[in-house]
Specification:
Two copies of one chain form a homodimer.
Chain A: E1 2-7, H1 15-28, E2 32-38, H2 40-43, E3 51-55, H3 66-72, H4 77-86, E4 92-95, H5 99-110, E5 120-126, E6 132-136, H6 146-164, E7 170-174, H7 185-199, E8 204-209, H8 211-216, E9 221-223, H9 226-251, H10 255-263, H11 265-274, E10 283-286, E11 291-294, H12 301-316, H13 319-330
Helix pairs in contact in A: 1-12, 3-5, 4-5, 6-7, 6-13
Pfam families (chains A, B): FA_synthesis (PF02504)
Keywords (chains A, B): Acyltransferase, Cytoplasm, Lipid biosynthesis, Lipid metabolism, Phospholipid biosynthesis, Phospholipid metabolism, Transferase
Function (chains A, B): Catalyzes the reversible formation of acyl-phosphate (acyl-PO(4)) from acyl-[acyl-carrier-protein] (acyl-ACP). This enzyme utilizes acyl-ACP as fatty acyl donor, but not acyl-CoA.
C-alpha cells in the first residue's frame, strides 16, 4: 500500500479541484491510500475506504510570505501534509500551494539529504518528441556554483529513472552554445565536473545544450541555475500564452472564422492536447529526506490528478533511495567548498 | 541621403536573399543609397543609380571562429562593410553573417563609446500587444555586473526612442519575481542603480519583470545578462518551433485534416502573420562608435529587408548621437569599478 498526504486546501481552487482528483485517483489505484489534510468539517463528507481525513485548521495563502508559513501558521494543511511524510505515515506529500512556502516548510521539516546543499525543483516540460524534458532547478536557487549543478544533475537522473524507468537518462548542461569553451566561469567548471561524473559512472552526460534543446527533447534532463531556469520557464509560459491568444483571436474574429473553428475542431483539439502542459503537472522537490510534489497553483482536477500519479510513481519506485544512492556514489566529486545553505528568505514564492 | 553598407555575402543564403532585398529597399526609399559589399563579379550585374559596388574578395563563413574573421580574412565583405561606417562612407552597416564575428569586427574597427565597457545586442521580440519588446543583451556578455545592466538600459532606451519615436520608453529588469528583494546580488544592485538612474531622469524604469513579461509587452525594453537573454531567446525559438510543428502535423495528418487546413487557410495565414518574427528582424549592436545591424542568418529577402529598414531608421534618427547623449547624461552613475573588457574569444558565434 502506498500512502500519499494531500494538502487539500492549497492552490488557486482548493477543495473544488483537489477532492475530485483524489476520488478519481483512488478509484484508479486500488493499492493506494490517501491522507486528506485540511479543514475537518469540509472534508468529512468525503467517504472512501482508503481515505483518511487529517484535520488542519489553517491554510497557507498563495501570497503568504515564507515567514508566515514557517512561523505563524503552524497548523496549516501544507505543513501537516509534509509532517505526515516526516512521521512515516505517508510516502509522499502533494500540494498546489505557494511554492516558496512549500519549499521552506519541506526543508525545515524534512531536512536535506547528506551531500545536498540546496533542494531543487524539477519541472517536466513537454517536448517535440512527445515526451517531457525534466528541467531543474526551477526553484529559486540563484547564484549556483558548479557543485550545485552537479547535485541537480544527479538528483534529476534519479527522478527520471524512478518515473520513466530509464536507468541512464541523458543530462544536458544549459549553456549559450554547445562548445566546451562557451559560457561563464561557473558553467565551464560545471561542465568539467559533469564530465568527471560521467567518467565515474554517476550520470550520462550529453554535454552543453541550448535553450531550444529543452523543447526539442535533445536530453532527458536539462540542468541550470534556478535564476536561468525560472526565466526560461516564465518566458515559455508567456510565449505559449501569446500564441494561444493569437490563435483564439483569429478564430473568433467574425462569424466566418467561428464557423471555420467549428469545422476544424477535432484538429484544434488534437493540437491542444499535444501542447497540454497539464499532462505533465507535478514538479518534484528533490534533495529532501522525504518526497514532496508541487502541483501548479492553477491546476484543474485533471492536472492535479497527474501530480498525484507522479508522486505515487515516485514513492512506489523508491525515488528517495535512488536519490540517496546516487548522491552517495557521486560523493567523491561532491567535496567542493560547502557554501552556506541558502537563507529561507531568498526562496521564491510562487 | 542616408547610405547603408550591406554585407551582401553574409547569412545562410547570401546574394540570393540580400540582392532582392536591396533592390526593394532602394525602390521604397528614394533618399537612401547603398554600398553593396562583396564579390565584384557577382555584384556587377546589380544596376541601380543609388547603388555602388564595393569589392571584397573574402567571406566570413557562418561557422568561422572569431579569430579567423579578425586575423585571417582581412578583406571579408563583413569587415569591409563595417569599414565603410568607420570611414564615414556609410551611416550604418547590415550583415546576416556570423554574430560572433560581426560583434568582434565591429568592436575592433569601431571601438566602444565612452562610458561603455561592453557592446550589447538588442533584439526585438513580438509581443501580445502587437508591438515588439526590445530585449538586451542577447549577445554573449556573460557575467555582467550592475553597471553593465545600467548601460544596457540606457542604450536600449536610445534605440527604442530612435526607432519607435517613444522618447521615454519603459525599462524592465528581468528577474525571478517582481519584488525588489528577489534575485541574485547583481540583480538587486542593478535594481538600485536603475532606480537612481530613473530618479536622475536618465530612463523610465518600470521595475522588475519576469520572463512572461517579454511576450506580454509589459515594458518596451527588457534588460538582462547576455547568458540569461540567450537562454530566453533560444528557449522561445524552441517552443515556437515545437508548437508550429505540432500544428502542421495535426493539419497534415490525413486527407480530412488537409481539407480542413485549406478551409481555414485565411485564419491560419493571419495567425502566422501575427507570430511572424521576420517582421522584427534586425538586431542592433549598441555601444559602438558606429551603427551596425545584424539580420538573422536564415533571413529570407523580406526579413533581410526589414533589417535594412531598421538600420535606415536608426541612421536617420541619429541613434548614435542618442546613445552618446544618454550615456553622457548617465555618466555620474556609470563610475563604478571598470571591469576588464570582455576578451574577444568569449564572444559567442551564432
Amino acid at each position: 500500500m502506498t500512502t500519499l498526504a494531500i494538502d487539500c486546501m492549497g492552490g488557486d481552487h482548493g477543495l473544488r479541484v483537489t477532492l475530485p482528483a483524489c476520488r478519481r485517483f483512488l478509484d484508479a489505484h486500488p493499492d493506494a491510500s490517501l491522507l486528506l489534510v485540511g479543514a475537518g468539517e469540509a472534508l468529512s463528507g468525503f467517504q472512501h475506504p482508503r481515505a483518511t481525513v487529517v484535520h488542519a485548521a489553517e491554510v497557507v495563502a498563495m501570497d503568504d510570505a515564507v515567514e508566515v508559513a514557517l512561523r505563524k501558521k503552524k497548523n496549516s494543511s501544507m505543513r501537516v501534509a509534509i509532517q505526515q511524510v516526516k512521521e512515516g505515515k505517508a510516502q509522499a506529500a502533494v500540494s498546489a500551494g505557494n511554492t516558496g512556502a512549500l519549499m521552506a516548510l519541506a526543508r525545515y521539516l524534512l531536512k536535506t539529504v547528506d551531500g545536498i546543499d540546496r533542494p531543487a525543483i524539477a519541472y517536466p516540460l513537454p517536448n517535440a518528441k512527445g515526451g517531457a524534458t525534466t528541467v531543474l532547478d526551477l526553484g529559486a536557487n540563484v547564484d549556483c556554483n558548479e557543485q550545485h549543478l552537479l547535485q541537480f544533475a544527479v538528483m534529476g537522473s534519479a527522478l527520471v529513472s524512478a518515473l520513466n524507468g530509464k536507468e541512464q537518462p541523458t543530462v544536458g548542461l544549459l549553456n549559450i552554445g554547445e562548445e566546451i569553451i562557451k559560457g561563464n566561469e561557473v558553467i565551464k567548471r560545471a561542465g568539467e565536473l559533469l564530465r568527471s561524473a560521467a567518467a565515474a559512472g554517476d550520470l550520462n552526460f550529453h554535454g552543453n545544450v541550448e535553450g531550444n534543446d529543452i523543447f526539442k527533447g535533445t536530453t532527458d534532463i536539462v540542468v541550470c541555475d534556478g535564476f536561468v531556469g525560472n526565466v526560461a520557464l516564465k518566458t515559455s509560459e508567456g510565449l505559449a500564452s501569446m500564441i494561444g491568444g493569437f490563435l483564439r483571436e483569429e478564430f473568433s474574429r467574425n462569424i466566418f472564422t467561428k464557423v471555420a473553428a467549428l469545422a476544424v475542431y477535432p484538429v484544434l483539439a488534437a493540437f491542444k492536447n499535444r501542447v497540454d502542459y497539464r499532462r505533465y503537472n507535478g514538479a518534484a522537490l528533490l534533495g529532501l529526506r522525504g518526497l514532496v510534489f508541487k502541483s501548479h497553483g492553477s491546476a484543474d482536477d485533471f492536472a492535479f490528478g497527474q501530480a498525484l500519479v507522479r508522486a505515487y510513481d515516485a514513492a512506489r519506485n523508491n525515488l528517495l533511495d535512488r536519490v540517496q544512492a546516487r548522491i552517495a556514489h557521486a560523493k567523491p566529486l561532491l567535496v567542493g567548498p560547502s557554501p552556506d545553505a541558502q537563507p529561507l528568505e531568498a526562496i521564491a514564492s510562487e
